[in-house]
Amino acid sequence: MNGFFDIPSDLQHSYLGLIGLHLREALLPVLAGLLLALPLAQLCVRFRWLYPPVLGVTTVLYAIPSLAFFVVLIDYTGQTELTVMIPLAVYSLVVLVPAIVDGVRSVPQETLAAATAMGFGPVRRYVQVQLPIAVPAIIAGLRVATVSSISLVSVGTLIGNQGALGNLLADAMFYHRPVLAVNSVVTTAFLAIVMDALLVLVRVLLTPWMPRGTRKRPKAAGAPEPAAPALEDAVR
Amino acid sequence: MNVLSFVNAFFSDSAHWHGYDGIPHRVLEHIGYSLMALGIAAAIGLPVGLLTGHTGRGGNTLAFIATAARALPSFGLLVLMFVLLGLGLLPVMIPLVVLAIPPILVTTYEAVRSVDPSPVDAARGMGMQESRILLQVELPVALPLILSGLRSAAIQIVSTATIAAYVSLGGLGRYIVDGLYQRDYEKVVGGATLVAVLALATLAVFWAVTRLAVSPGVRRSA
Q1: Do B176 and A67 touch (CB under 8 A)?
Q2: Which of A11, A144, A171, B203 is 20 to 30 A removed from A101 (C-alpha atoms)?
Q3: CATH class assigned to B3-217
Q4: Rounded Cα–Cα distance for residues A195 and B4 (Å)
């Protein structure tokens, strides 16, 4: 008894169960955001005039506090998981669209010309040339979206115990057990760091042509730097 | 009744317009907390960011701080501080400030570091002191990015201060949290609208400040 991993039974989940729930509530929206962002970003690349208004709308959407977003949705989707996941999907979308647009636009003109000269059609050129080259920028966006999504799921506690690991925070207050809050914060941060590391690993696997010592300056100065200030916006 | 009619009912009820739980008082409270947190965070983040950016050192440490801070859950930190320290402004201010420093710090560092080196060299060649180079050459050029860092910190503070109503802070989050407990959806949606408007107003203020403070030459080249 009194173990660090003992969870009050009102949450109806074990420690691992809460982690599973938390990951589902955090990652499904990111996935949905990515699936929506890819075509939207492609439209923004194709029709340049579309990008500034889209960027304006995304900035405004991203400024809306998560709690306000959640509670307005209650009227439509009730106090359910979906109410938490829809805003998170929107936030992910908002982070990913500029990341993908910048990544796809950063593909050099000569590379595109070479692909066309080799007989690639527009679709094949997009899938086999533009997307792979944009992978570092897309992963950088995914990292921010994933980490902030994992952190924001906890706020779901406020709209009726939809916060997975965040529900531990409410219980820490009900039962006056600070250790539950410590558990929640540490576990959430741990999940975020693990997911972040996994995405870095995915990037290394997907971009075998990039120099391996990514810690050092050479490539890091070229690719992720321009995205860095923009992505700093995405911290919440 | 859809959301809009709830909002309309909330704002047309004159009981919501005065007293301690009235809209003017709660809005001022929210702005007060947000400015206080932003002020403290900027007082720490800006000088450190300017200095590290000017010398170009400590980039790895800053990147680590940014990643670590991003991983910390804001709501979790709020509740943790509250259960550890109890009632009061301090347990709420700590998370607000801690979470606002990294965007300010890292963006300022990046902004100063990525200033075109040739005007900096020219200034040094003309015999300007390092402090004047930083304040009169690098700062004006880096200003748009620095302001965008402050903006994301401010937006984050406004939205986290809303959640802080759960751990007893005043401000606009009170309407949402109290309304949820009282099953008064009108109040919940009214509070949400006010918070959203305040966040958008923050965006607008920073847009205006950027227009006014950034030198036209810098804006043209950006």
Answers
A1: yes
A2: B203
A3: mainly alpha
A4: 39
The residue ranges of every structural domain in chain B are: 3-217
Report how far residue A125's alpha carbon sits from residue A123's, in angstroms, rounded to the nearest whole number: 5
Query: What is the C-alpha separation between A108 and B19, in angstroms, rounded?
Result: 61
Cβ–Cβ < 8 Å for A163, A153: yes
**pTM of the full structure:** 0.86
Q: Count CB atoms within 10 A of the CB of residue B107.
A: 30
CA atoms within 13 A on the CB side of B151: 27
Q: How far apart are CA B129 and CA B112, in angstroms?
A: 16
Nearest chain A residue to B101 by CA distance is A235
- The residue to which tokens 């971009």 are assigned: A207
8 Å CB contact of A173 and B77? no
Q: What is the pLDDT of residues B22-34, one digit of tens each?
A: 899 999 999 999 9
* CB proximity B148 to A under 8 Å: yes
Please count the CA atoms within 13 angstroms of the CA of B169 that sit on its side-chain side.
Answer: 32
Domains of chain A: 13-232 (1.10.3720.10)
Which tokens hold the place of A125? 């050129």
Q: Do B159 and A67 touch (CB under 8 A)?
A: yes
Residues B174-219: tens digit of each pLDDT: 999 999 888 888 899 999 999 999 999 999 999 999 999 988 888 7
Cα angle A40-A225-A236, degrees, rounded to a multiple of 5: 65
The ipTM of this complex is 0.84
Return the closest-CA partner of residue B158 out of A67, A72, A154. A67
By C-alpha distance, the chain B residue nearest A148 is B70
What value does the mean pLDDT of chain B take? 89
- Using a CB–CB cutoff of 8 Å, tell me whether B197 touches chain A: no
Dump pLDDT digits (tens) for A29-69.
Answer: 999 999 999 999 989 988 889 999 998 888 888 888 888 89
